[in-house]
Amino acid sequence: MNTNDVIQKFKNRKPSILGEENYFKSSVLLPLIEKENETHILFEVRSMNLRRQPGDICFPGGRMDKEDQTPLHCAVRETSEELGLAEDEINDVIPLDYVVADMGRIIYPFIGHITNPNNIVPNEDEVGEIFTIPLNYLLQTEPEVYKINVQLKPEDDFPFDLIIGGENYQWQMRHIDEMFYKYNGKVVWGLTAKILNHFISQLK
Hints:
Elements: H1 3-10, E1 24-35, E2 38-46, E3 57-58, E4 61-63, H2 71-83, E5 90-95, E6 99-101, E7 105-114, E8 127-134, H3 135-140, E9 144-150, E10 174-183, E11 186-189, H4 190-203
Parallel strand pairs: 1-7
Antiparallel strand pairs: 1-2, 1-4, 2-3, 2-8, 5-7, 6-7, 9-10, 10-11
């Protein structure tokens, strides 16, 4: 194969994330509602009956199905199922920056306006409760930030003889900033806090 053949092969290629087909993909919606003439953000508390992360605070959302045409479709579908809303009650759905997270996950966050919050009937199988936080409070409140150190640990049979430095190779240790928002006894943290902070920073 000559150089021109290689160039033609790649000429119109659109880049994506390496190995993206193996990633766990999900979408979430950061729901905006009007409450007492003020904009609030709605959160869910995951049902204690769920196998994964019971009791955690999150946004509506979930894993993309094969039937989901786009991440946006997934976010609206999941929000509709979890909050008992018709899909046409979820409007102005706009993408935020997507998250490539640990352990091979891609999360596609969106903001959206729930026009009839009085119609919300949470799915008890998935949602323990819902609550809201005023947007103005979040605009005026900085999250608490703590660091989690992440260190690489090779397997026992790792081929140190194949790398420069061998067993003395200086692996880079990194850290993750973990954010916490507190409001009326509720604590928003993890990826939900990360997405929330991104949203707030874009507003500012």
